[in-house]
């Protein structure tokens, strides 16, 4: 190669230059014009379960690195380091000084190598690179089958959301699952079927064929099955669109579409005000005559922006422990709600009624602490509003019969030896619990600890049976665990379910009296 050196400066427009030829590759080797590239493959095809050992013989000793280059028919490349073919232990080799003539690497299509595209109808070309070698010997293989088996189960995914100007993420509620508004920032938690050291990406595929590709971060040390990413926002110009979530596992290159209840629905116009003037102040009031909220007290909170804004307008409730809840506010208008189109109709005044005694208004949205000696700060969020007006109220003891009735702590072991049943061992209200997928019975207020040890079978408590992670019961700790304790204190009677998110047969009923 040849290098030309020139100089630039704002006062200098000359063209003086120095021209140098570059000699060699700085590795003190003679250029190798040809080498022998072989493998133990007996045909030109690679099956799903086939291991192939690729070898290169340079005919002379060379220094590391020696890399196998894998190129698919779309031009995508991957580089894999080769190791010297010697009996000397790897710990006794200094690859910075020791040279070797023969090098090798073992590749497997369904293993832990970073294949570019391992689907069928693809072709892989194998070549070798080294600083002394400029030859073009290659091996070309066709890929057979799509290597689809039970090991490629769909990843388990949950997400949390925080609204404009808030820094704490909260888990989205079932009735609002999948809806994303302007200003919302998302955090995704992904659990893969197996642990590995690979690269995992989250792709948001929009209906117009475009997509956003985001690298996930491993949770804890590698290898791990748990990955996460936060700070994901709505792509520019995607208002009113729908985005399908796809997990790309670049270790095995299995591309899996997530359950339909995790499709993100960017509802047209909801908070998506591109041309609004930023509102720097608003009037936030309530009909509360002091700074306390009694047990039986309803409070009507109103905000007046002094200019019309689009939905959503949310009341943000933050307690002294940092827990956050969001409640949708409604416009103050005489127009019936059935006649309002929230994608285009704007209003200046918005309100919401909250009651400490109505648990569904509070803990259903998050873990707001309703006990005394807690303080709740009320603020308002909207895509045009960045003000910080707030109302702070103290909570007065709210203990009623439903909270003071006697309760019992139950512990139930949960195992899974197949994808057909959960095996349980413990106690419920009726006595001893044992066997496969038993029906369970408890009282409202009981503490139920499911001690889960079922790798590959996420254990969810749900309001309706079925795979996926929709219809989740709110207030459950570690819902979806495979090796942890799932804890639930039911607050209302009814029929509920435990369910593996991946296998429909692994389910049972829970009756709360």
Question: How would you characterize this protein structure?
Answer:
With 513 residues, the protein is an all-beta fold. The protein folds into four domains: 36-143, Immunoglobulin-like (Sandwich), CATH 2.60.40; 152-265, Immunoglobulin-like (Sandwich), CATH 2.60.40; 283-399, Immunoglobulin-like; 409-512, Immunoglobulin-like. Helices cover 1% and strands 43% of the residues. It contains one helix and 39 strands. It has one helix at residues 401-404; strands spanning 2-5, 18-21, 36-39, 45-46, 51-62, 67-72, 77-81, 83-84, 100-108, 123-129, 139-143, 156-162, 170-171, 185-196, 200-206, 211-215, 217-218, 224-233, 242-249, 254-257, 264-265, 283-286, 292-293, 298-309, 314-319, 324-328, 330-331, 347-355, 375-381, 391-395, 409-415, 423-428, 431-436, 440-442, 447-453, 459-462, 485-488, 494-500, 507-512. The strands form nine sheets. It has a five-stranded mixed beta sheet, with no helix packed on it. Strands 13-12-14-18-17 form a five-stranded antiparallel beta sheet, with no helix packed on it. Strand 12 (156-162) and strand 13 (170-171) form a beta hairpin. The N and C termini lie far apart (82 Å). Mean pLDDT is 77; it is low at 111-115, 148-152, 268-275, 359-366 and 399-405.
